[in-house]
């Protein structure tokens, strides 16, 4: 992107899950795009994420579903434990039939999926070290100013540039809100085998929410979310402060878990863990109400993934809905471009992005709102909330986990992304 007049028809900002899914979906339809990624190389943060039924439907549409199935265990069940007592609050089979067929969930390594998506794209599609710093409008095209001083002219701009999206800001979307909660995560390696069942083990209550899940016979992923105390201690430091080393963060998690009734094998997994390169991160979300009226698309610009619907992780749907976005957007945009005559492409693209926004608006707001509510109830140590959760809501909350994946992004757009 060195010369001033460099131009591309479709530019995607961000080579995360949403960006690569859009690019691959377009490629499957014979439509070329360029992906600008701010990082110098493929992203590795995050370790792993839950890939539910809806995400596998999206991955199958993109042609990489079986690659992920071959490398990650299918999880058979969910066991929810009450942190205050160590008792099982709920057991659930994760292979039951939903409205659209049997459910499927695996814990998938983020870097493995990103690599699989990128490998399916033509060489040179992803341009690293290409951070967009500002956007100008010129005769309907978007002039993208890159951090290295170069510019790129784009006929269509798709923002998949994450929670701090430059494109979302340009569209005027509401700034993500703080949830008042923080998350950390890690993974443990057991060269001789870990011995955990292929199940999600989750702990709720006592002011935190934690979980452990195997992604293979030798690897285990865990997460821990909590609400840092607002008041500092006598030394002026917040006891729950997050600006700590990996060792200190690990000790913080172990202390919190040890004070509750978390099983010894889970404590051991945390003890032997490699910590994420993001030691602790505040959980943010975009107001679901604001999304119902926001400009998700404007002319030849739109957003997808975390740039559209940053959400708390309590339904484990952030990555899954990003993949849904990618399939739906590629279908809408690809069909508009492939079927367009020479003079009508611009209008068809605008209509396609508007159609995509209409399809994804309610789904995005729903996932954010339900996830936030589930996280509040599961993490709370308030006695009344805890009682209602443990006695009445555990079944409802568990079933909500299966309600959101019972969705097929392809049903909105015919049936498969093909050339």
Automatic annotation (TrEMBL):
GO molecular-function terms, A-Z: FAD binding; monooxygenase activity
Keywords: Monooxygenase, Oxidoreductase
SUPFAM superfamilies: FAD/NAD(P)-binding domain (SSF51905)
Lineage: superkingdom: Eukaryota
Location of the FAD-binding domain: 9-344
A Pfam family the protein falls into: FAD_binding_3
InterPro entries xref list: FAD-bd (IPR002938), FAD/NAD-bd_sf (IPR036188), MOase (IPR044560)
Family stated for the protein in its record: Belongs to the 3-hydroxybenzoate 6-hydroxylase family.
Protein name: FAD-binding domain-containing protein
Taxonomic lineage from the root: Eukaryota, Viridiplantae, Streptophyta, Embryophyta, Tracheophyta
């Amino acid at each position: 992107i060195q010369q001033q007049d460099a131009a591309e028809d479709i530019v995607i900002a961000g080579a995360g899950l949403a960006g690569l899914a859009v690019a691959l979906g377009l490629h499957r339809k014979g439509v070329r795009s360029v992906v600008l990624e701010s990082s110098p190389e493929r992203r590795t943060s995050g370790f792993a994420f839950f890939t539910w039924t809806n995400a596998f439907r999206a991955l199958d549409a993109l042609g990489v579903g079986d690659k992920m199935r071959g490398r990650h265990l299918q999880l058979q069940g969910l066991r929810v434990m009450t942190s205050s007592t160590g008792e099982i609050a709920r057991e659930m089979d994760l292979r039951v039939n939903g409205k659209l067929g049997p459910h499927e969930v695996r814990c998938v390594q983020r870097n493995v999926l990103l690599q699989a998506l990128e490998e399916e794209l033509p060489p040179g599609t992803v341009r690293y070290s290409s951070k967009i710093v500002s956007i100008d409008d010129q005769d309907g095209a978007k002039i993208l100013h890159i951090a290295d001083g170069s510019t790129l002219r784009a006929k269509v701009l798709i923002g998949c540039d994450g929670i701090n999206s430059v494109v979302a800001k340009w569209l005027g979307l509401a700034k993500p809100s703080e949830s008042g909660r923080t998350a950390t995560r890690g993974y443990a390696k057991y060269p001789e085998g870990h011995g955990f069942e292929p199940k999600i083990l989750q702990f709720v209550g006592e002011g935190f929410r934690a979980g452990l899940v195997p992604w293979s016979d030798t690897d285990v992923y865990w997460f821990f979310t909590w609400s840092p105390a607002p008041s500092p201690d006598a030394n002026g430091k917040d006891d729950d402060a997050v600006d700590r080393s990996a060792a200190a963060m690990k000790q913080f998690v172990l202390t919190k878990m040890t004070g509750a009734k978390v099983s010894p094998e889970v404590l051991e997994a945390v003890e032997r863990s490699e910590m994420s390169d993001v030691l602790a991160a505040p959980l943010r979300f975009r107001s679901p109400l604001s999304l119902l009226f926001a400009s998700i698309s404007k002319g030849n610009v739109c957003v997808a993934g975390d740039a559209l619907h940053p959400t708390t992780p309590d339904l484990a749907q952030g990555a899954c809905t990003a993949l849904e976005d990618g399939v739906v957007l590629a279908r809408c945009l690809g069909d508009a471009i492939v079927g367009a005559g020479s003079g009508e492409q611009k209008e068809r693209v605008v209509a396609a992005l508007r159609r995509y926004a209409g399809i994804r608006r309610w789904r995005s707001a729903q996932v954010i709102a339900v996830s936030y509510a589930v996280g509040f109830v599961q993490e709370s140590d308030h006695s009344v909330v805890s009682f209602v959760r443990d006695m009445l809501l555990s079944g409802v909350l568990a079933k909500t986990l299966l309600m959101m994946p019972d969705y097929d992004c392809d049903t909105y757009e015919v049936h498969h992304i093909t050339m």
